[in-house]
């Protein structure tokens, strides 16, 4: 069972305080988008063994959404960061590079 | 016969006798006994029958690894099956019965299976119960169920009278195991200032060391244990717990510990078990080692026991297993048992050592005591049935030709010791095969890793493969040091205490005795005592192609019993490796899964039983509803009144009365459960335009609008009335079950997509009690209460106003879900009961009645209003429900808009909402499907629609329904068929879904 | 107005600690920009204390401000003054983006009193939070869950904890706390 530090309130939150929110950094496609774009947005998800970025909400806590970067295989957490960003912050990516040289995830590396 | 010795028993209080019963027989033990030691002390060696062949079985171990001595413990509300006698502390009045036999333990009919054992090989069930297929359900399954299971489940009507609880704690260092290794590791970490929790599964500290002998810094192990405990009891940063087992080690330092608070003293106030849900920065597994049996023919006969267990019973409990004990071994440790027994004045006719070279210093000591030592020998077979009578000795190197038979009544066997690596392995710690010691031990290079990728489990002592006292203490000290450092403490470098034991000769692995045992012997050489798996079964599995250890396990059931193979796994996989001609590490182990030993369901449930099984949400009027004897229905975690039956009334009659009264005059509904979300900020209108399918930003302050909310996938997820409170502020009503979900939905979009929009949301659902005042006399009753203008001009349909009624501040919404003149009045929750009482009082002249959710449902269906969860099921879009009028054509975007443009969503063949009227006025079955001509590819009838809501309408005096039907709106007047599950076919005409007051005149007066 | 009725009318239970529903309590949810001087001033004017920092609760007498999230605070004040407090905040903050709502009746407040170690134990049976005295003390507001419902807890003093939950589950939370405080259920973990 995971324990993640909520970057919004600083609490080391037990997984039972959190609600999972699936893959992070999705770009929304609305009216005007092609079928392929919309399908990709709504249904196509990464399912890596290794580095992954996901959304969590500190639902039994401060109520805020945040992002977590972790290894789905070892469950190592590379960091958590606020949800108000469209891509993983530099420091998180650097930390992952230090631990998992050569990693890639979607368009990020 | 096993018996109680005149003296000895370091854990006993000989002054205190304890009475208990076994299979109804009254027996006496001593304070400090386990149930197992008390039974043995009373001469009861045989305690059960094996699972498959019903062979007589006695205790084989003295601790958590015991596979045989499982009993039904307690009676009535405290009956619990499959309790291990070896870990059950004796208490006055304990009542136990043996398991898996009929009619009695001594004479068991099922033992006939044993005679046919050659016809019951591994995979017997898989091979036998295959054909014919028709037999599966009615012949084979009942047969298998009949023969399955060990203990007896408590009667269904009984309720566990004990309580259980959880406890959450965060610690720096958790040390699992209170033997000398655990004590030393905890002491070292504690001295360094780390916050330490040390847990021990038994009631006693010190583990095996006080039994095994040896010295620590020149003193007996007992003295070391006492000193370590005394020092730690003085440390504020160290907590000690006995009767607390490390059950499982999980990700990110999560550990479950199972504390048996009052199993040894039933009825004591407080919980029986406590499940510790721990978060640990470092975990030290000082879980010791478990002795392995030797695989020789007849190794399951009562009286054959692990050598360490024989020693435990003698030293700890003053119990001898027999007068003449033969010791069989492949290592030096078992010599301790022989020496112990001899020194207690008991006979040890021989030590059979499979090693050609024999043992070291302990062997010398045994010989000096006059014990005969045979080296290079093995046991060909044990003689006896319900009790050991003797052993036949052979050359270990041979096939089992008998050299000599020696009479004895007990056999103490030792195949070496296996580190308890379970907790190390639970969370991914890897193992390495130690050839010299013939054991799997933790691989220090592949430990379980925690949240930061750091190692977080450290094995210590025997659990780390160190069997000698000196090595154990050194290793444990290092473990404590490493854990302390890992949590940021600064341990001072000191020398570990010095443990000393006699020099030992190396173990020689013996996986089969004798090594070339012929098949008749292998068929009687047990690996898994509880599940009756023998050497020959594993060999058969290998021949039949079950080469993976996980496959062989499942095929033979090796290690799948309640002891999870604590005794059998290593021996089994060694046999498998041999059969496959590959080294042991290549075969590997099966997966170690938590819990270490079974934990109670009660502990897992914790406090969640009875009235706190789950939260029940209560409205401010709940007390009143209960006092009225309302019949409740669950809606989410709420319990809403379904109807308020009067004396002698059926629920259907009550519902009909409530509807007739409301439509005719005046009814009241507790609508407090409806979600209420305040959405405020400069971008609130823009935000709601994205959330709802219709336009909310154009709503005028003071007005209300019904809105639909869809998921990004286009499906309808919630509906409700939105009121514009001010320029920047809205109040959104949600469905009863939707408040938290929709609040979360709003927060999600605001926080993760449109975080630059200036909008705040607050869930104020429970701030308000909300009462719907409904019916033609609704206005009159509010006017009686007085305080604000509720006339049509001042407060028209779909408007709201703040004011006061009967002196209570309120907000009144002119909205209607029944089609009648209706006001929904929101007041502070603490005022709701006062307003309700005033409405009841003022409404008396109108014969006012409360109505429940069923009346609400029927009235909305009469009006053709949809209900989320009835007309919708997560696959329905608003267009299916004829709600196109509530979908804005002007907006560029809203959540779900793009999804609704997909071809499947715009397919004209989507089923559409219609009304359904049965031809004969009866009520359509809920969920019934309308059939069409022909069959589909699976040979099932084609369908053309389904019922989504169906009721008897007291207003219309007939059954009415809504449903989704293929081309329904274009087929008004068509009659379609709905076969029921009752064998009848219901015929219904497709009609307009609005059955009552089609023009909406009644709600708009 | 009639006299305000709290969810459980002051119900109480005595086990290894005492559990009491605290009766009507004024509460205001305030949301806004934490850095805005106007917001800080408005909150201080209503609550009589400075806005606390992250996870803090600042109290003086019968008033307090608790940090709930980076843009949300809970102002505690006498129940009868909650409506007026909301009006004051809205007036003071007119023209700035904020939210002020009276949530006094949406919640229930419990007082848990007794030996300091016992009190932490009772809460730790229900909440997956680190309540060790070294890491949770007075002045901190911990939002977490109690068994199956969200709750917020803080210590007024070593011997007195407060628990806030939603009103609809007041009865559940009272029963939970009572079960956790059952006689004989002392744990002893925080005593060391």
UniProtKB/TrEMBL annotation, chain A:
Signal peptide stretch: none
InterPro entries in alphabetical order: SoxD, SoxD_sf
Gene3D superfamilies, alphabetized: Folate-binding superfamily
GO molecular function: sarcosine oxidase activity
GO process annotations (BP): tetrahydrofolate metabolic process
Name of the molecule in the record: Sarcosine oxidase subunit delta
Species in which this protein is naturally found: Lutimaribacter pacificus
From TrEMBL, chain B:
Domain spans labelled GCVT N-terminal: 621-891
SUPFAM superfamilies given in the database record: Aminomethyltransferase beta-barrel domain, FAD/NAD(P)-binding domain, Folate-binding domain
Domain Aminomethyltransferase C-terminal: residue ranges: 912-997
Domain FAD/NAD(P)-binding: 172-423
Domain SoxA A3: 524-605
Source superkingdom: Bacteria
One GO term (biological process): tetrahydrofolate metabolic process
GO terms for MF: sarcosine oxidase activity
Pfam families in UniProt: Fer2_4, GCV_T, GCV_T_C, Pyr_redox_2, SO_alpha_A3
Keywords assigned by UniProt, alphabetized: Oxidoreductase
Keyword field contains Ligase: no
Similarity comment: family membership: Belongs to the GcvT family.
Name used for this protein in its record: Sarcosine oxidase subunit alpha
Lineage of the species this protein comes from: Bacteria, Pseudomonadati, Pseudomonadota, Alphaproteobacteria, Rhodobacterales
Automatic annotation (TrEMBL), chain C:
Record-linked Pfam families: SoxG (PF04268)
Residue ranges of coiled coil: none
Source taxon at top rank: Bacteria
InterPro entries attached to this UniProt entry: SoxG (IPR007375), TrmE/GcvT-like (IPR027266)
SUPFAM superfamilies according to UniProt: Folate-binding domain
Name the record gives this protein: Sarcosine oxidase subunit gamma
Species this protein is from: Lutimaribacter pacificus
């Amino acid at each position: 069972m995971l324990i993640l530090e909520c970057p919004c309130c600083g609490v080391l939150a037990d997984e039972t305080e959190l609600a999972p929110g699936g893959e992070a950094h999705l770009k929304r496609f609305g009216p005007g988008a092609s079928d392929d774009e919309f399908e990709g947005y709504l249904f196509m998800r990464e399912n890596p063994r290794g580095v992954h970025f996901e959304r969590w909400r500190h639902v039994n806590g401060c109520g805020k959404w945040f992002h977590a970067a972790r290894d789905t295989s070892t469950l190592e957490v590379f960091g958590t960061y606020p949800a108000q960003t469209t891509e993983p912050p530099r420091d998180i990516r650097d930390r992952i590079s230090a631990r998992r040289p050569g990693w890639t995830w979607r368009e990020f590396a | 016969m096993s018996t109680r010795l005149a003296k000895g028993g370091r854990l006993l209080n000989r002054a205190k006798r304890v009475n208990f019963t076994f299979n109804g027989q009254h027996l006496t033990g001593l304070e400090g006994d386990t149930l197992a030691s008390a039974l043995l002390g009373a001469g009861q060696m045989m305690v059960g029958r094996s699972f498959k062949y019903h062979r007589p079985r006695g205790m084989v171990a003295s601790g958590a690894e015991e596979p045989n001595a499982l009993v039904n413990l307690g009676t009535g509300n405290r009956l619990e099956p499959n309790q291990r006698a070896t870990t059950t502390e004796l208490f006055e009045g304990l009542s136990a019965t043996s398991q898996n036999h009929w009619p009695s333990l001594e004479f068991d009919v099922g033992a006939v299976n044993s005679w046919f054992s050659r016809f019951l090989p591994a995979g017997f069930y898989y091979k036998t119960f295959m054909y014919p297929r028709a037999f599966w359900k009615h012949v084979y399954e009942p047969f298998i169920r009949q023969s399955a299971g060990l203990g007896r489940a408590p009667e269904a009507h009984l309720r566990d009278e004990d309580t259980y609880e959880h406890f959450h704690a965060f610690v720096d260092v958790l040390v699992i195991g209170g033997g000398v290794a655990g004590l030393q590791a905890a002491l070292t970490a504690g001295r360094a200032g780390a916050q330490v929790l040390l847990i021990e599964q038994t009631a006693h500290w010190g583990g095996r060391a006080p039994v095994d002998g040896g010295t620590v810094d020149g003193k007996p192990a007992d003295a070391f244990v006492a000193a370590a405990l005394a020092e730690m009891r003085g440390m504020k940063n160290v907590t000690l717990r006995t009767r607390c087992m490390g059950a499982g080690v999980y990700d990110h330092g999560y550990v479950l510990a199972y504390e048996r608070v009052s199993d040894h003293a039933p009825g004591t106030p407080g919980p029986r078990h406590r499940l510790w849900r721990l978060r640990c920065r470092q975990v030290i597994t000082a879980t010791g080692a478990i002795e392995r049996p030797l695989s020789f023919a007849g190794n399951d006969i009562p009286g054959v026991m692990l050598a360490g267990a024989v020693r435990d019973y003698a030293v700890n409990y003053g119990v001898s297993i027999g007068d003449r004990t033969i010791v069989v071994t492949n290592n030096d440790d078992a010599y301790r048992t022989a020496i112990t027994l001899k020194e207690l004045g008991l006979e040890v006719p021989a030590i059979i050592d499979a090693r050609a070279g024999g043992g070291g210093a302990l062997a010398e000591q045994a010989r000096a005591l006059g014990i005969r030592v045979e080296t290079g020998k093995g046991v060909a077979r044990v003689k006896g049935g319900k009790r050991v009578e003797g052993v036949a000795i052979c050359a270990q190197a041979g096939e089992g030709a008998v050299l000599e038979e020696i009479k004895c009544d007990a056999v103490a066997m030792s195949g070496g010791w296996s580190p308890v690596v379970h907790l190390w392995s639970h969370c991914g710690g890897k193992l390495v095969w130690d050839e010299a010691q013939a054991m799997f031990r933790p691989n220090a290079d592949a430990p379980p890793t925690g949240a930061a990728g750091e190692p977080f489990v450290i094995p210590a002592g025997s659990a780390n493969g160190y069997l000698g006292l000196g090595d154990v203490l050194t290793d444990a000290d290092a473990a404590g040091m490493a854990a302390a450092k890992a949590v940021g403490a600064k341990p001072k470098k000191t020398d570990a205490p010095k443990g000393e034991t006699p020099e030992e000769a190396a173990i020689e692995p013996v996986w089969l005795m004798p090594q070339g045992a012929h098949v008749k012997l292998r068929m009687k050489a047990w690996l898994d005592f509880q599940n009756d798996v023998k050497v020959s079964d594993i060999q058969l599995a290998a021949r039949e192609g079950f080469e993976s250890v996980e496959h062989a396990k499942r095929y033979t059931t090796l290690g799948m019993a309640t002891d999870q193979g604590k005794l059998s796994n290593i021996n089994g996989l060694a046999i498998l490796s041999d059969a496959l001609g590959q080294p042991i590490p290549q075969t590997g182990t099966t997966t170690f899964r938590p819990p270490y030993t079974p934990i109670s369901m009660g502990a897992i449930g914790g406090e969640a039983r009875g009235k706190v099984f789950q939260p029940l949400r209560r409205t401010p009027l709940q007390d009143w509803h209960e006092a009225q004897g309302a019949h409740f229905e669950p809606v989410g975690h709420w319990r809403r009144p379904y109807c308020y039956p009067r004396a002698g009334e059926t629920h259907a009659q009550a519902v009909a009365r409530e509807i007739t009264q409301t439509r005719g005059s005046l009814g009241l509904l507790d609508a407090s459960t409806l979600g209420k979300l305040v959405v405020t900020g400069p971008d609130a209108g823009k935000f709601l335009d994205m959330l709802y399918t219709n336009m909310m930003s154009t709503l005028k302050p003071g007005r209300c609008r019904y809105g639909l909310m869809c998921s990004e996938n286009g499906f309808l997820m919630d509906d409700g009335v939105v009121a514009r409170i001010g320029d920047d502020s809205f109040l959104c009503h949600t469905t009863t079950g939707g408040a938290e979900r929709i609040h979360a939905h709003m927060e999600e979009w605001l926080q993760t997509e449109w975080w630059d929009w200036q909008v705040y949301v607050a869930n104020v659902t429970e701030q308000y009690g909300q009462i719907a005042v409904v019916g033609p006399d609704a206005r009159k009753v509010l006017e009686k209460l007085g305080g604000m203008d509720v006339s049509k001009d001042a407060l028209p349909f779909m408007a709201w106003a703040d004011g006061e009624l009967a002196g209570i501040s309120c907000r009144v919404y002119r909205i209607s879900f029944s089609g009648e003149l209706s006001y929904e009045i929101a007041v502070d929750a603490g005022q709701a009961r006062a307003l309700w009482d005033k409405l009841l009082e003022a409404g008396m002249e109108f014969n006012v009645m409360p109505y429940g959710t069923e009346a609400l449902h029927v009235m909305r269906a009469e009006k053709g209003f949809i209900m989320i969860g009835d007309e919708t099921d997560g696959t329905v879009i608003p267009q299916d429900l004829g709600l196109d009028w509530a979908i804005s054509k002007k907006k560029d975007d809203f959540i779900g808009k793009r999804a609704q443009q997909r071809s499947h969503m715009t397919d004209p063949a989507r089923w559409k909402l219609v009304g359904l009227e049965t031809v004969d006025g009866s009520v359509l079955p809920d969920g019934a499907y309308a059939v069409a001509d022909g069959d589909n590819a699976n040979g099932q009838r084609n369908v053309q629609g389904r019922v989504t809501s169906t009721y008897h309408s007291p207003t219309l005096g007939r059954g009415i329904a809504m449903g989704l039907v293929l081309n329904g709106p274009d087929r008004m007047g068509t009659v379609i068929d709905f076969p029921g599950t009752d064998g009848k076919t219901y015929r219904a005409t497709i009609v307009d879904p609005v059955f009552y007051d089609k023009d909406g005149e009644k709600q708009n007066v | 107005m009639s006299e305000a009725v709290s969810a459980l009318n002051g119900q109480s239970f005595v086990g290894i600690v005492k559990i009491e529903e605290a009766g009507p309590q004024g509460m205001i949810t305030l949301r806004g920009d934490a850095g805005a001087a106007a917001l800080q001033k408005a909150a201080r004017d209503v609550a009589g204390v400075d806005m606390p920092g992250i996870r803090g609760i600042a109290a003086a007498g019968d008033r307090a401000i608790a940090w709930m999230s980076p843009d949300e605070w809970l102002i505690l004040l006498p129940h009868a003054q909650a409506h007026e407090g909301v009006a004051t905040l809205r007036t003071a903050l007119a023209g700035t983006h904020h939210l002020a709502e009276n949530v006094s009746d949406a919640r229930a407040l419990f007082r848990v009193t007794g030996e300091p170690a016992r009190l932490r134990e009772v809460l730790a049976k229900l909440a997956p939070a680190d309540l060790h005295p070294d890491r949770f003390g007075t002045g901190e507001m911990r939002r977490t869950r109690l068994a199956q419902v969200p709750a917020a807890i803080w210590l007024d003093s070593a011997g007195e904890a407060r628990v806030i939950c939603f009103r609809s589950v007041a009865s559940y939370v009272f029963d939970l706390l009572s079960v956790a405080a059952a006689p004989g259920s002392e744990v002893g973990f925080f005593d060391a």
